[in-house]
Each structure stands twice: as C-alpha cells, then as structure tokens.
Design goal:
It holds the Pfam family YgjP-like. The protein is α/β, with parallel strands linked by helices. About 45% of the residues lie in helices and about 20% in strands. It has a four-stranded mixed β-sheet, covered by helices on one side. It has a three-stranded mixed β-sheet with strand order 7-9-8, with helices on one face.
Length: about 230
C-alpha cells in the first residue's frame, strides 16, 4: 500500500494505492479531508474518476464546513446567537469584567468565565423565551433549570421540570426558540410521536427545517475555541 498527496483542480486529495482493492472508493472525513482509494496508479483513470465524482466531493466538503463548530479567540471574542462578537460589546460586559478580574488567567479559569457568562445570560434570555411560548401554548411548567450539557440541548421530565443547556446561547435565535417549543411540547407528549411533532409545528412553523439544521450541527464545545 502506498499513500500520496495529489491535486485535482483546487482540491487536495489523499490517494491510497492498494493493488488488492477490487473497487475504487472516495470519502470525505469529518476534518474535510478527501481520501481516494484505488488499485490503479493511472493518472488518466484517477482524474476521470475525480471528474465524475467532483460534484459529490464538493457537496460533502461544503456540508463539513457548515457543520464545523465556530472557532473564536479566547479573551477577545464571544459566540452569541450564532455570531462572533468582540468581548467589548455591551452584551458581553459580564464576561469582559470577569476576564479582567482574573488573578490567574489560565485556560481553565478563562473557560470558567465563559461558562459563567453563558449561564447568567441564559437565565435572563431563555427564561423570557420560555415564558413567551408557554403563554402562547397555554402550558405550565413546574420548574426551569439551566445546565451545561454535552449531549443534548434540553430536556423535560414527567414532573414538568424543564432543563435547558446554557450553550443554547451559541445557537441562532430561531434555533433557540425551536428547542424551547420542543421541550414545552413534552409537557403534553413525553415522546416524539406524530402528535408531538404536530404540536411543535403548530407553534413553530418550519420546525422540520430548523430541527434538521440543529441535528446536523455538532454541539458547540468550548474545547473548540482557540
């Protein structure tokens, strides 16, 4: 087996040549790396194959780019409502003050400042959105909690306690509203049945598009920040 880097137009391709392969394979990794595996070294064959698959390759690369977590510069920027802002912006005043008052500006302490900022901002913004939609939907919840979570944007248990991920503040506002309506709908349906999705769609039109958009994106992680 032999691996080499080849070029096709503006694309960089990792070519893996293996004589025992019966078919040729093209894949795009989560890091947006294009890998081509063939049993042939023929440039004519390889270029012809890439030409036929070019449209598919570019589509996959675009998808990876769109799904890649947004990166920001720690201490200088903050990700809020799907946009990157300077920490000098008014909405980031709490974060800016916390960073300025750090005695030991280690990465761990800096990340803690960001976590605290999202938690405090979440209590204010998300509470208003939950109250807004609970009033429109005529639904009452027992308690609203905020917590940083790694695997879900929110949850609602059978006791009527709704928990929202503080990292929701990194999503666009329409995506946040979808999650709010989604969790409130669980007060009526503790499942993801057709009736549940119909209820969500009643109060949040175009819910399928937004839900798909959220699912295709990775949970924004502070570990991805630079």
């Amino acid at each position: 087996m032999h691996t080499s880097e080849i070029s096709f137009k503006d694309l960089s391709i990792t070519h893996v040549h293996k004589k025992t392969l019966k078919n040729s394979y093209i894949s795009v990794t989560s890091e947006a790396k294009v890998i081509l595996k063939t049993s042939s070294k023929s440039k004519i064959y390889i270029n012809d194959l890439l030409r036929k698959k070019e449209s598919w390759i570019r589509k996959q690369l675009l998808k990876q780019k769109q799904n890649r977590p947004i990166e920001i510069n720690l201490e200088d920027e903050v990700l809020l409502f799907g946009e990157v802002y300077s920490v000098d912006t008014k909405d980031a005043e709490i974060l800016r003050n916390s960073l300025c008052n750090l005695r030991k500006p280690t990465r761990e302490n800096i990340l803690r400042c960001y976590d605290n900022f999202y938690k405090e901002h979440a209590k204010s913004y998300l509470t208003k959105r939950v109250e807004h939609y609970s009033s429109i939907m005529n639904l009452k919840y027992q308690e609203l909690k905020f917590k940083k979570m790694k695997s879900r944007w929110g949850s609602c248990n059978s006791l009527g306690v709704i928990t929202l991920n503080t990292n929701l503040l990194k999503l666009r506002k329409e995506q946040i509203d979808y999650v709010v309506v989604h969790e409130l709908s669980h007060l009526v349906h503790m499942n993801h049945s057709k009736a549940f999705h119909a209820l969500v769609e009643t109060y949040f039109t175009d819910s399928l598009r937004v839900r798909k958009d959220i699912r295709e994106r990775r949970l924004y992680s502070m570990d991805a920040l630079k």
